[in-house]
Amino acid sequence: MEPRKQPAQARSAETVAAIVEAAARILEDKGFRGYNTNDVAARAGVSIGSLYQYFPNKDAITKALLRRETEPLSAALEQAGDAPSLAEGLQRFVQAAVAHQLRRPVLARLLDFEEARLPLQAEVGALGDVGAKALARLLARHGAGRGAAARTASRDLFAIARGMIDAAGERGETDARDLEARVTAAMSGYLDRMKIIAL
Amino acid sequence: MEPRKQPAQARSAETVAAIVEAAARILEDKGFRGYNTNDVAARAGVSIGSLYQYFPNKDAITKALLRRETEPLSAALEQAGDAPSLAEGLQRFVQAAVAHQLRRPVLARLLDFEEARLPLQAEVGALGDVGAKALARLLARHGAGRGAAARTASRDLFAIARGMIDAAGERGETDARDLEARVTAAMSGYLDRMKIIAL
Amino acid sequence: MEPRKQPAQARSAETVAAIVEAAARILEDKGFRGYNTNDVAARAGVSIGSLYQYFPNKDAITKALLRRETEPLSAALEQAGDAPSLAEGLQRFVQAAVAHQLRRPVLARLLDFEEARLPLQAEVGALGDVGAKALARLLARHGAGRGAAARTASRDLFAIARGMIDAAGERGETDARDLEARVTAAMSGYLDRMKIIAL
Amino acid sequence: MEPRKQPAQARSAETVAAIVEAAARILEDKGFRGYNTNDVAARAGVSIGSLYQYFPNKDAITKALLRRETEPLSAALEQAGDAPSLAEGLQRFVQAAVAHQLRRPVLARLLDFEEARLPLQAEVGALGDVGAKALARLLARHGAGRGAAARTASRDLFAIARGMIDAAGERGETDARDLEARVTAAMSGYLDRMKIIAL
DNA sequence: GATGAATGAGGATTCATTCAT
DNA sequence: TATGAATGAATCCTCATTCAT
Question: I need a labelling partner for A133 at 20 to 30 A (CA). Which of B20, B106, C47, D12 fits?
């Protein structure tokens, strides 16, 4: 399921990138039903044989795409966990997540679903885990508790954010600022109500 | 795409029900990858020919299943919109949603995803629309505003609930009470923060 | 690797037989290089889908053909082991083997080779084992020893017969009587020389 | 189908040899199913492009391997035909054949089978022909007849030897002396019984 | 109505071979 | 001469759907 060949030459790297992007486009245009390797290859301007030089099977392509889309967000979420204040951490967190989702909402939603089926080996944790962990760290670092309760809270916060942002993307919202404000409100409202911390 | 024939006789109704339940089981066991009409028919104890007597195509089965799972919840959500108080309305709303998701979490998640692809004609609104509308009515009836802002708020509330409940189901949570409390907290926290209404 | 569906109706049985025979013909005509499921189906006058209704994969077809060709011979060889005299046993043994090989020599050779690659589960022993065992029984029952030496001898006898008959088939010999006489001579000559028994 | 270029330089000869040996190894390890040019090239430590510089196509590699394996044996068998006595001739013949087969039994068996499919042009006769001819010469030179009967006998003798030695190789026998004795016994027993000559 | 045999388009993957660098 | 990226025909197999019985 891993990339078959490390693209050694520049040309190869381009080919790999083209395949992954083609996969993204096809998923956006036609969904999983229309997502097949022949079309991906064609859209990438590459022969089907070349596609299989770089990816051992279809899932490997999806996985590569998943990584490409997920990793920058993961990194941003992790950084948010190290913010100087809780408020700023949440803000960064939400900003990153919103920016990610509004960039390619259809794709984000499809990959989000597919993530469950594709066992990304340990190397890349599921997005949900990464996000929840970053939030847990943020809470812990700013006196909002540790332990099981804090873990549940951080998972809930992540779920709130994901649910709202996902729905907004699906609805076609484009105003990032507004969405960020609402998501942040929901998250701090939750913290408030759960008496975890008052913001 | 609609059921091909209204089951006139009791036996037919049983057959239809068996097919739909078989579809549910297969989706739960093997996901979309293993979901095919031949297996559904076999699991239902029915010939593939009979299956196609009752359903014109595969999507029609999925749709029937979607309806079967969704309609009771839709009805419950609508009722919650008519509750005597906002607090009670939210509570009923969350109770219904949590009960639904925890009953068959895997199935709920898969259908939730598939809902986007299957154009249920107007007759049955998407669950999200129904839920958001019920919440909007609830807010309106208890002095929490109307108009665009309220519509956005109700959609957000629905998204918060769906996000949290979905994640809980995926994680295998089983304590409905606890989950309900957290979801309610998140929703009222949001209303609070957004200055829509103080609960 | 086993037949997928027991042909319940007469029509099905015919289809299965047609597929197996088509496989035989294609192997004879074009060898393993030209042996592919699409051509087998076409030659059987059946759609590729039907072929896969009865056989889960290509090897299963080869296996069915192997059984069809091998089982009668196996049975005949086993019977030869129970002959009233050593001479008659050898004669029957050789007759059966020669008749088998001269019937469809090309096919016999190809399947003989393929047998090594296809692990027929215990049910059907490899032809070589069956034949050698029958010969061992024959020798034992007529005072030609048991134990390791007899086992080696029976394997050698089988190998002699197979080698000669195979080569004759490949060369296009058609005179069964003559071939039988030579093979019998070789086998009894071996027994003689090895001082196992004098015929 | 012939080697594309005569290796003029030493390095080329090494490359060719490496390719042929790689082919041998892969055939031994994975059989025909796993025998493909890309893997052969990789195993030979050569690029696929280089492989095709020396061999015009895959069959040419197999053929070169066949020659490499077959020629020394052919030569030895021919020499056996010139032995001073029939007994010594048979002995040399069997020794050479046994030594060949026990060296790389799996490879020998595979190539034996493939020989039928690859039309080695006249230059190199099929092993069977060479062996049978050597035996025919041996018989003729020692008063055991000429003509059709002797030709048949020599073919039978070769078939006996091949059959026994092949089976022994497949079974994993390693005791060359013992095997030689049994094969010689079978051959002389045959000559005896067929009244061709008494040894 | 029910059955299940049959269909065949569609899709994943392999691998011999070429050719630009 | 060597390289290895690229090619695409060939092949295995699946599955939604039809239709004769």
Answer: B106
Query: Using CA atoms in the order B42, B47, B48, B54, what is the torsion angle rounded to 10 degrees?
Result: -110
Amino acid (one-letter) located at A158? F
Using CA atoms, how far apart are residues D42 and D44, in angstroms rounded to an integer? 5
Find out whether D66 and D73 touch, Cβ atoms under 8 Å: no
| Residue C83 at interface with chain D, using a CB cutoff of 8 Å | no
Distance CA C102, CA C166 (A): 9
Q: Identify the pLDDT of residue B49.
A: 96
* Residue D54, nucleotide of least CA–C1' distance: F1
Residue D143 confidence (pLDDT) above 90: no
| The two three-digit tokens of residue A40, written as one number | 């991906």
The alpha carbon of D90 is separated from its chain's Cα centroid by a whole number of angstroms, namely 17
Pick the closest to residue A73 from A100, A98, A91 (CA basis).
A100
**In the structure encoding, which two tokens stand for residue C104, read together?**
């469809």
Residues A131 and A142: their CA atoms lie apart, in Å, by 17
Q: Where are the domains of chain C?
A: 10-56, 69-193
Taking the C-alpha atoms of residue B194 and residue B188, their distance in angstroms, rounded to an integer, is 10
> What is the full DSSP assignment across C96-123?
HHHHHHHHSHHHHHHHHHHHTTS---TT
* Per-residue CA distances from A112 to A37, A71, A73, B36, B182 (Å): 20, 13, 13, 23, 24
Say whether D185 and C194 touch across the interface (CB within 8 A). yes
Distance in Å from E14's C1' to D39's CA comes to 12
What are the mean pLDDT values of chain B's consecutive 10-residue runs (199 residues total)?
57 90 96 95 96 95 94 94 94 97 94 85 75 94 85 96 95 96 96 84
Identify the CATH homologous superfamily for domain B10-56.
Homeodomain-like (1.10.10.60)
Reported as a pLDDT band with limits 50, 70 and 90, residue D118 is confident
Sign of CA dihedral C123, C124, C128, C131: positive
Distance CA D104, CA D108 (A): 6
Asked if the Cβ–Cβ distance from D113 to C117 is below 8 Å, we say no
Chain E positions within 7 A of any protein Cβ atom are 1-20
- Chain A positions touching B105 (Cβ under 8 A) are none
Token readout for D89 is 């001739």
Pair of tokens at residue B191: 């209303």
Cβ C184 to strand E below 7 Å? no
Cβ of D37 less than 7 A from strand F: no
pLDDT tens for B20-66 read 999 999 999 999 999 999 999 999 999 999 999 999 999 999 999 99
Q: From residues 31-70 of B, which are strand F contacts by CB within 7 A? A: 33-38, 48-49, 52, 57-58
Cα separations in angstroms, D180 against C152, D94, D97, D100: 13, 6, 9, 12
| Any C CB within 8 A of D152 CB | yes
Contact partners, residue B183, CB within 8 Å, separation at least 6: B94, B97, B98, B160, B161, B164, B165
Q: Are the C-beta atoms of residues C161 and C93 closer than 8 Å to each other? A: yes
Please check whether residue C101 is in contact with residue C163, taking contact to mean a CB–CB distance below 8 angstroms. Answer: no
Cα gap C28→C26, rounded to integer Å: 5
Structure tokens at C64: 């069915």
AA letter at C142: H
Q: Do D159 and C167 touch (CB under 8 A)?
A: yes
**Touching check for A87 and chain B: CB below 8 Å?**
no
Per CATH, the number for B69-193 is: 1.10.357
- Cβ C9 to strand E below 7 Å: yes
DSSP, collapsed to helix, strand or coil, labels residue C143 as: coil
Report the run of H or E that residue B163 belongs to, with start and end. helix B147-171
Ranges of chain A whose pLDDT falls below 50: 1, 8
What subunits touch chain C, counting only 3 or more CB pairs under 8 A? Answer: D
- Do D73 and D96 touch, CB atoms closer than 8 A? yes
Whether D159 sits inside 8 A of C168 (CB atoms) is yes
